[in-house]
Automatic annotation (TrEMBL):
InterPro entries attached to this UniProt entry: Cupin_8, JmjC_dom
Domain JmjC: 112-269
Highest rank taxon of the organism: Bacteria
Taxon lineage: Bacteria, Pseudomonadati, Pseudomonadota, Betaproteobacteria, Burkholderiales
Entry protein name: Cupin-like domain-containing protein
Organism per entry: Duganella violaceipulchra
Length: 334
């Protein structure tokens, strides 16, 4: 039911400009990393990608998640949502690769997954040969390794460029406005840090989650192979399936905001503490205050106040942010 994501072909690792990296719509970049040695190794043979990773390994321990065969690769909550259907372990990366290899030809294997591990932590020198030029952006490069896995729809605050380095992955994206139709689970008790949709994309229960049909009407999807990449803008919901017995993805996260800014998630959590349970009329008043000072703020918002007297209404900088953070913490620690 989802429509195909927009695609561009013919770009290389040094060809990405601000028109792509500052975009607010997702985009598939076919063959972007085709020149990577990792990609060429993965395409050369069944175990080529595994061998290439091992050639860069330097005795590092990584965090991994193990799921039972009956989960079908889906990392999620357990049946009553009191916990999760997988358990975390710490192991040498080579031991994880051995486990993936041992399950390569199983029809219904247990799931093995290394998620969001900083590339330099476990594979020093990898980025010297396999990297994307991002125009000076201070991006965090992470690697994801596993067999067939399914990650529920979630959003990330940073912009995200994800490169498939081995195997194939199917991405299904939903615009931020579809939040109300995705049936999101707990915000502070999550499988891997981000709140996720409770709907199983491969087997949706429309009786239980009827509004999900509307989300699907706005979904966009693409299947990516080795060397392909996808740009996922901040706050877009994305569901990811790794389709092969061995899959590797490298992604880059960066924010289009100054370093002194905290994540907006902090404001959301503070709003639960300070606003959600107010009387309806007061919530509506605060909605107007946020609209005026935050969501529709412009040069006119504080124009009636002398510049030297605007305080928090003035543009923030590193020092002003430190002062504001200290004041807020002091008020919170009551």
């Amino acid at each position: 039911m989802a429509e195909a994501l927009r695609e561009i072909s013919g770009l290389g690792v040094n060809d990405l400009g601000d028109d792509i990296l500052n975009a607010t719509e997702p985009l598939v970049l076919r063959g972007l990393a085709a020149s990577w040695p990792m990609v060429r190794a993965a395409l050369a043979g069944e175990r080529g990608g595994d061998a290439y990773l091992r050639s860069h390994y330097r005795d590092a321990t990584v965090g991994a998640m193990l799921g039972p065969p009956e989960a079908g690769g889906r990392f999620f909550y357990n049946a009553d949502m009191s916990g999760f259907n997988f358990y975390p372990v710490h192991a040498k990366l080579t031991a994880v690769l051995d486990e993936i290899e041992a399950k390569r030809h199983h029809a219904t294997p247990a799931t093995v997954y290394v998620g969001s591990t900083t590339v330099e932590t476990c594979l020093p020198g990898f980025r010297e040969q396999n990297d994307i030029h991002l125009g000076g952006r201070d991006a965090l490069a992470s690697i994801w390794i596993g067999n067939r896995t399914r990650i529920a729809a979630h959003y990330d605050v940073p912009d995200n460029l994800a490169v498939v380095a081995a195997g194939h992955r199917r991405f299904t994206l939903f615009p931020p406005a579809q939040l109300k139709n995705l049936y999101i689970g707990p915000l502070d008790f999550t499988p891997a840090g981000q709140a996720v949709s409770l709907v199983d994309l491969l087997n949706p229960d429309f009786d239980k989650y009827p509004k999900f049909a509307e989300a699907l009407a706005h979904a966009q999807t693409a299947e990516l192979g080795p060397g392909d990449a996808i740009f996922i803008p901040s706050m877009w919901w994305h569901h990811i399936e790794a389709l092969d017995p061995f899959n590797v993805l490298v992604n880059y996260w960066w924010r289009q905001s100054p370093d002194y800014m905290d994540t907006p998630t902090s404001a959301l959590m503070l709003a639960f503490l300070t606003m959600r349970d107010l009387p309806a009329a007061q919530r509506k008043a605060w909605q107007e205050i946020f609209r005026h000072y935050i969501f529709e703020a412009d040069d006119s918002t504080a124009a009636h106040i002398p510049e030297y007297a605007r305080h928090v209404l003035a543009p923030l900088n590193d020092e002003a942010a430190r002062v504001l953070r200290a004041q807020t913490l002091k008020k919170m620690n009551r």
